Amino acid sequence: LRARGNQSGARGQGTMAGVKAEIKREGGDNTKGSAQHDGVDYELPDLVEAPVYYPTSAEFKDPFTYINSIREEAEQAGVIKIIPPKDWLCPFMIKDKGDDFHFQTCVQSVNQLKNRHGPNARFMARVRNFHKRQGVPLPVEAPVVDGRQVDLHALCQAVEERGGAAAVDEKDEWAHIASALRVGRQPLSCAQRVKEVFKAHLEKYAEAVEAGVPMDDVPDEEHFVQVRKRFSRMATSSAAGNAGEEGDEENGDAFGFGEGGFYTFHSFKRRADDFEKKWFASWDRSVTPMDVEREYWRVVEGGDLLLRVEYGNDLDVSSHGSGFPTPHNAGEDLKGYIQDPWNLNNFPTVEGSLLKHISPNGEISGVSAPWVYVGMLFSSFCWHNEDNYLYSINYMHHGASKTWYGVPGADALKFEEVFQSEVPELFARDPKLLFKLCTMVTPKVLTGQGVRVNHTLQRPGEFIVTFPQSYHGGFSHGFNCSEAVNFALPDWLPFGRASVERYKDKKRSPVFCHERLVLMLAILDRKEDIGSQQEWIDSELRHVVEREKQPAGVDRFGAAACCGEREAASRSGSIR
Q1: How far apart are the C-alpha atoms of 535 and 408, rounded to whole Å?
Q2: Contact yes or no for 93/321 (Cβ under 8 A)
Q3: Measured between alpha carbons, how far is 114 from 175 in angstroms, rounded to an integer?
Q4: pLDDT tens, residue by residue, 290-345
Q5: What is the spatial distance between Cα 151 and Cα 149, in angstroms, rounded to a whole number?
Q6: Are 535 and 372 in contact (CB under 8 A)?
Q7: Whether pLDDT at 48 is above 90
Q8: Which among 570, 405, 409 has a CA at the least distance from the CA of 502?
């Protein structure tokens, strides 16, 4: 019963009729249970499938008119999917030039996206503190055998269960331990390397534990991976955007995504494909999207299985190149797609977009200029809503599916309350946690507390649109490449104002000055006919004027103050 538009008639705008019934998940059966290897079962919640819309070729010509036509219905879901007409076949420009597409990844510790200090983390803290006292600190990265990271906690437990290292040596059981750890497809060939890892990392620690030496399991924060600072849209201001403020990790939650390797598009594909093959090597049947979803939450919720993946995220098209045809990567034969309004390089400046007026100095990376994302199995985009509560649109160019979860903007405050109650210790350490895109909470918890959560599976050639203030998150099912950008329609204006007020409370700077945008739109209103935008602009301008009339000494300006726009705001009374 997915909301798939007018399925019995023309492929026009979608409908949400019947969407609130219990719905069978897209991408697999609805049976409970988990994988065919050792591990706990993970029962997925019954989520409503996000609406899917099929615009006609005529409707598809004007993206903002189309999105506005479905807005009242679609915003109730927070996240929707738009499938282009069958004759819209935009080419992917990176695939054939993948050796020239260079990028650096970040490293994500999936098992710590919720449980920062779960059993695995506490064990590793004890081991690290022990080695530190011995004067031989362990490296941050886990040891690797046959291309797979070794879970030292699981290795230590496996050896202990068999009576200790001496007993394992005597019975020649290292191959059995390699098999239990799922290290390599040929455990016999990995046995010696697994033994060497134990000797180097765990043998002295295990001997000390057996001798009764007390161990300190307080996590050593310097070993948490430092937050990777991308010089992105927020780097020029006092706040570092969704990554948190500069220097924030020293006083807040030190957990973040560390710097990964350097790859080309093709070399990362080989890395991602190899990881996926090894992860599911022991499965005796084909893997469904629901299987991947269960595996993901099994790791996130459990917290005790070491899992680090890489993600090429936030890759600015100005320095890396776009997956869409542009004048820089395509010829005249693709001129139609170069100029297409659904080409995300054009999207922020299409007629009706407000974002073309936000910056006097050009594009804002990741907001009005797209970012490319190159993922692998379990690469995560953690719960967040967009900067300044903007709309966003994401197009998948190539590869494996992505799971998306979306919360309607109307449930945003309830989402935040439940989120904070689920990980209170993380918020105690860092009140700005929601801005940092590094934490996942299962939809099962959210729906259990009355938060509406919608689910969808994005495939190549499909657009995902998120609506203002909507929280969303998800993960990749394998190697893929997508591209995303923000946009704003007139109905977004009150959400933008609300974001400014929220950021003031949280001491966070907005991406751009909301008041300046309102004033620019008001000036344009006098010069040209902007039609349906006028009502929204008039309302927002009245708020700017009322704030200007507040007594001196009151912080009247919010974003205007931090954007250096006091002088412009002071003239707002004479604009109309």
Answers
A1: 24
A2: yes
A3: 33
A4: 999 999 999 998 866 778 899 999 999 989 999 999 999 999 999 999 999 999 99
A5: 6
A6: no
A7: yes
A8: 409
- CA atoms of 477 and 217, how far apart (whole Å): 34
How far is residue 400 from each of residues 380, 396, 397, 442, measured CA to CA in Å? 14, 9, 10, 22
Nearest Cα to Cα of residue 453 among 493, 497, 492, 419: 419
- Compute φ and ψ for 44, nearest 5 degrees: -80, 145
Q: Whose CA is closest to 515, among 399, 370, 357?
A: 357
pLDDT at 423 over 50: yes
What is the dihedral sign for C-alpha 482, 485, 491, 497?
positive
For the entire predicted model, the pTM comes to 0.75
- Three-state DSSP state, 316: strand
Tokens standing for residue 270: 């080989």
Rounded distance between C-alpha atoms, residue 222 and residue 64, angstroms: 47
Residue 411: Cβ-neighbour burial (10 angstroms; 0-12, 13-18, 19+): buried
- The pLDDT mean for the chain works out to 79
Q: Indicate whether 447 pLDDT > 60.
A: yes
In degrees and rounded to multiples of 5, residue 150 shows phi and psi of -95, 125
Cα atoms in the 13 Å half-sphere on the side-chain side of 39: 27
Distance CA 55, CA 426 (A): 43
The model's pLDDT over 50-76, given as tens digits with 9 standing for 90+, comes to: 999 999 999 999 999 999 999 999 999
Looking at the DSSP bridge assignments, the partners of residue 482 are 373, 396
pLDDT at 483 (0 to 100):
97
Report the C-alpha gap between 167 and 160 in whole angstroms.
9
List Cβ<8 Å contacts ≥24 apart for 221-226.
Answer: 221/254, 223/124, 223/125, 223/128, 223/140, 224/254, 224/255, 224/256, 225/107, 225/109, 225/140, 225/255, 225/256, 225/257, 225/258, 226/254, 226/256, 226/258
Do 449 and 420 form a contact (C-beta atoms < 8 A)? no
Distance CA 196, CA 146 (A): 13
